[in-house]
């Protein structure tokens, strides 16, 4: 027999643990399985006549294009920003949304090399458009093959290029866009939203050291902004999106079996943002399997985590090898 004090303590711990599990399960289920019925309505002007615009960086392909496509179907205007495939992406969007031509705009910019004055000029040219959604999506591993390599094999330029593309651009661009987003939200009695694309790799993957580190920056930067905006009552919500493997133009070989297509992943992002913001989250993995995988990375023993991560990348290396 346990002494009554000890059994009371154990009972309290057990009850608190069960409540904690039930609370988190409820949050998980509402986020992943009860999609919003009118997604992103909070980011549209209340007058229902002004078009809200979304600016999506890196949106000529992959997840960015998927988001543009989905947002057009929700009556947002979209601004495509990319470097090489802009006109082809715009033609595809025009074909998919024949009645939305006036809601598609585009800019060509090399986000990896753009100096600050060019970024400032871009922001100035956006002034007339009521932008309420800023999606910092551009990012990749901008290296000549092999893209998966040991850190010691990086050239200095590879390091700078990855940092410039994956975090330098978004950092300057976001700072310059905050006054615009604040103004648009305040003058239209609605809210604005910043989404920042990180990755499950943010915890540090072998063969992807610099990419992982930039994605950790995206995550930490986004979380800091979310907290700053909330604490100081900005009319801007901010959320970090943390994908696992998504089938895109930039990630198409050696995929994990459950990897969603970019268009499906984009739909999940759009349908889950409202609930994630309502729950007060700083981040979300919109696809439930990714959410579980990424959570597991934080709790598995390190030896197992390392082995699993290496296996994921080595499958990709093998698939790239076969393609060449
Ligand atoms: N796919 C995944 O499995 C996965 C997983 C975790 C995180 N993510 C993150 O999700 C985001 C999107 O990934 P994705 O796989 O959809 O990418 P993607 O298919 O490789 O597409 C990248 C987009 O970025 C644009 N881009 C590339 N370099 C650029 C440059 N120098 N200047 C301007 N635009 C440039 C490309 O356009 P142009 O070619 O026209 O320039 C394209 O529109 C990234 O931040 C990535 O880190 C992806």
From TrEMBL:
Keywords assigned: Membrane, Oxidoreductase, Transmembrane, Transmembrane helix
GO cellular component, one term: endoplasmic reticulum
Family: Belongs to the short-chain dehydrogenases/reductases (SDR) family.
GO terms of molecular function: oxidoreductase activity
UniProt name for this protein: NAD(P)-binding protein
InterPro entries referenced in this protein's UniProt entry, alphabetically: NAD(P)-bd_dom_sf, SDR_fam, VLCFA-Steroid_DH
Transmembrane segments: 6-25
One Pfam family hit: adh_short
Organism: Trematosphaeria pertusa
């Amino acid at each position: 027999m346990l002494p009554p004090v000890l059994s009371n303590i154990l009972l309290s711990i057990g009850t608190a643990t069960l409540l904690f599990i039930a609370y988190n399960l409820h949050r998980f289920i509402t986020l992943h399985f009860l999609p919003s019925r009118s997604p992103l309505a909070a980011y549209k002007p209340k007058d229902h006549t002004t078009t809200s615009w979304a600016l999506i960086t890196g949106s000529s392909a992959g997840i960015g294009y998927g988001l543009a496509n989905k947002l057009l179907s929700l009556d947002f205007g979209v601004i495509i920003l990319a470097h090489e495939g802009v006109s082809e992406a715009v033609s595809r969007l025009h074909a998919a949304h024949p009645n939305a031509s006036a809601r598609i705009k585009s800019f060509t910019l090399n986000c990896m090399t753009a100096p600050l004055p060019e970024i400032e000029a871009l922001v100035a040219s956006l002034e007339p458009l009521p932008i309420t959604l800023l999606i910092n999506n551009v990012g990749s591993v901008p290296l000549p093959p092999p893209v998966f390599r040991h850190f010691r094999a990086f050239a200095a330029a590879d390091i700078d290029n990855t940092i410039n593309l994956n975090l330098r651009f978004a950092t300057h661009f976001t700072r310059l866009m905050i006054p615009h987003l604040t103004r648009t939200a305040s003058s239209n009695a609605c809210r604005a939203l910043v989404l920042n694309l990180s990755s499950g790799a943010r915890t540090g993957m072998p063969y992807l050291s610099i990419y992982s580190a930039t994605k950790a920056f995206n995550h930490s930067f986004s979380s800091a902004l979310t907290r700053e905006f909330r604490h100081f009552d900005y009319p801007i919500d901010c959320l970090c999106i943390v994908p696992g493997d998504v089938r895109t133009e930039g990630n198409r070989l050696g995929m994990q079996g459950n990897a969603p297509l970019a268009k499906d992943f984009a739909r999940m992002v759009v349908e889950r943002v409202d609930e994630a913001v309502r729950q007060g989250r700083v981040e979300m993995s919109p696809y439930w399997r990714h959410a579980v995988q990424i959570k597991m990375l934080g709790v598995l023993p390190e030896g197992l985590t390392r082995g699993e991560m290496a296996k994921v990348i080595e499958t990709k290396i093998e698939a790239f090898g076969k393609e060449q």
